[in-house]
Design goal:
CATH superfamily of the largest domain: P-loop containing nucleotide triphosphate hydrolases
Structural class: alpha/beta
Number of strands: 18
Helix content: 25-40%
Number of domains: 2
Strand content: 15-25%
Shape: globular
CATH architecture of the largest domain: 3-Layer(aba) Sandwich
Radius of gyration: 23 Å
Strand order of the largest sheet: 5-6-4-7-8-3-9
Largest sheet: 7 strands, parallel
Length: about 500
């Protein structure tokens, strides 16, 4: 079943005229002067001394919102992309994680929405992200700025109340932040129409490709106006992402502030060789260090077991993976962000989009599968200029495969062989002996953070739909979407599940 709408739009031909924003209406007009560039550009960008957000012509409300948030100086990716985005050009943004991409596209969208008003069930701008957690992160960053300009910013993600999301859409949403599966559900059920979407931002496009969401992304893009502006941000621009760029972006300007390898100067990389029977003890001593630590394992069962074993010896650890309900995932992140838990044991579900301040060490308990996963995991530390350490634990038989992975990632890690209690282990990671006093798993705490649709899908039960009828509870998919892999709330099968499952065969272990 293909999602359709009453005003579906086909993709414009490649020779269409460049677009131009009509500031008085907050929309684009197809009649406009030619763009200054007819080919994608690659630019390594730095911020000129003294540059402020006021230099980009942002509305006064946005400038006030930035000032209230204590944000004064733009990051390089923001300074590189805002002029082109504000001019109505399609933009490709490539930058390392934690570089400020959210404000790069968020400010451009909010600035161009300023002064307009959304109709019921018809959002004016759309941000597509691959995971629920990333949607929440984007919403946390952009909602205060939207309020400062009198705009409504809302989220549509799986695992949260479908009815509440439908009610919010019916009240009118200027900027909608959505995951592909759940947005497809709303389109199918008539609670969201995309014909007024003049601006689309795709964040972490390469991860959406890896997770098998591109068929849904294409369907969604086909339902937005062909004259709309597209902003695409991705760590890589090849393969499936490149095909998406060629299909939907017109004369895009590419702005990049970092290579795709891990060349962050504030990030130290280490590979520590351990014997198989001492690996658990070494990981636990590292988790007992001072400061926040994210540890990555391959499976959800390993994450739960590792966190439980660490709590038994005095380490306040929690597990995060796709097998948890959205409410549980929210609570785990709140515990980690608040400091109630200092060690987060995660599968790769957390490798993208989770921004927690002051994560000083990333530990690969299980080595990543490839260089891309290495970079995604490593990006949880050394964000926005902060320093951090990335450590990979290997057994002797993993030495060759990890060496190839780090080489492809552009990393030259320092090698060492360690045992529990070693001074070298403590020097590199800050490892210390755990207290030995068991730590209880944190009790559920209701988050005070603002996020509409607090009720999570707990599997089973019913929720109210927008039309007042009761339907099976939505959610429970491993990563995103309404239902399983973004299927319809009415129980229909997702036509792309087979393709998604095939593309995600490696990830489904989480």
């Amino acid at each position: 079943m293909t999602i359709t709408q009453d005003t579906a739009h086909t993709r414009a031909p490649k020779n269409r005229k460049p677009r131009h924003r009509d500031a008085s209406k907050g929309r684009f007009s197809p009649e406009a002067p030619a763009r200054t560039s007819t080919a994608a550009q690659y630019t390594s960008h730095t911020v000129k001394p003294g540059t402020t957000f006021a230099d980009f012509g942002l509305p006064i409300g946005l400038l006030n919102g930035l000032r209230d948030a204590g944000i004064d100086t733009p990051f390089p990716i923001q300074a590189a992309t805002l002029p082109d985005a504000m001019a109505g050009r399609d933009v490709l943004g490539r930058a390392q994680t934690g570089s400020g991409k959210t404000l790069a596209f968020g400010l451009a969208l909010l600035a161009q929405l300023d002064g307009g008003r959304a109709r019921p069930n018809r959002p004016r701008a759309l941000v597509l992200v691959p995971t629920r957690e990333l949607a929440m992160q984007v919403a946390d960053a952009l909602t205060p700025l939207a309020k400062a300009t009198g705009l409504w910013c809302r989220t549509v993600v799986g695992g949260m109340s479908f009815g509440r999301q439908a009610d919010a859409l019916n009240r009118g949403v200027d900027l909608l932040i959505a995951t592909p599966g759940r947005l497809s559900d709303h389109v199918r059920q008539g609670t969201c129409t995309l014909s007024d979407v003049g601006f689309v931002a795709l964040d972490e496009a390469d991860q959406m490709a890896d997770m098998g969401f591109l068929p849904q992304v294409r369907e969604i893009m086909d339902l937005t106006p062909k004259t709309g502006q597209r902003l695409l941000f991705s760590a890589t621009l090849d393969g499936a992402v490149g095909a998406l760029v060629r299909q939907y972006l017109v004369e895009p300007v590419e702005r990049s502030v970092a290579p795709v390898t891990a060349s962050v100067t504030t990030m130290d990389h280490h590979v520590l060789s351990v014997s198989r029977h001492e690996k658990q003890a070494v990981a636990t001593e590292i988790a007992a260090r001072e400061g926040r630590t994210i540890m990555f394992v391959r499976t959800k069962h390993h994450a739960d077991r590792m966190a439980q074993q660490m709590r038994m010896v005095g380490v306040p650890a929690v597990a995060l993976h796709g097998g948890k309900t959205q409410g549980q995932r929210n609570r785990v992140l709140e515990d980690f962000k608040s400091g109630r838990s200092t060690a987060l044991v995660a599968t790769d579900v957390a490798a993208r989009g989770i921004h927690v301040d002051d994560v000083s060490l990333v530990l690969h308990i299980d080595p990543p599968a490839d260089s891309k996963d290495y970079l995604h995991r490593a990006g949880r530390t050394a964000r926005a200029g902060a320093s951090g350490t990335v450590v990979t634990l290997i057994t002797p038989d993993q030495r060759g495969s990890v060496r190839r992975i780090t080489e492809r990632a552009g990393v030259k890690p320092k090698m060492a062989q360690v045992r529990p209690g070693d001074a070298e282990l403590a020097r590199i990671t800050g490892a210390q002996q755990p207290s030995g006093e068991p730590v209880r798993e944190p009790a559920p705490v209701r988050s005070a953070k603002r996020f509409e649709g607090r009720r999570s899908g707990n599997g089973g039960g019913h929720v109210r739909r927008g039309d007042g009828r009761r339907s099976p509870r939505q959610g429970g998919g491993d990563r995103d979407g309404g239902g399983q892999f973004g299927g319809s709330g009415r129980g229909s099968r997702n036509p792309h599940r087979g393709a998604a499952h095939g593309q995600r065969s490696r990830k489904v272990r989480e």
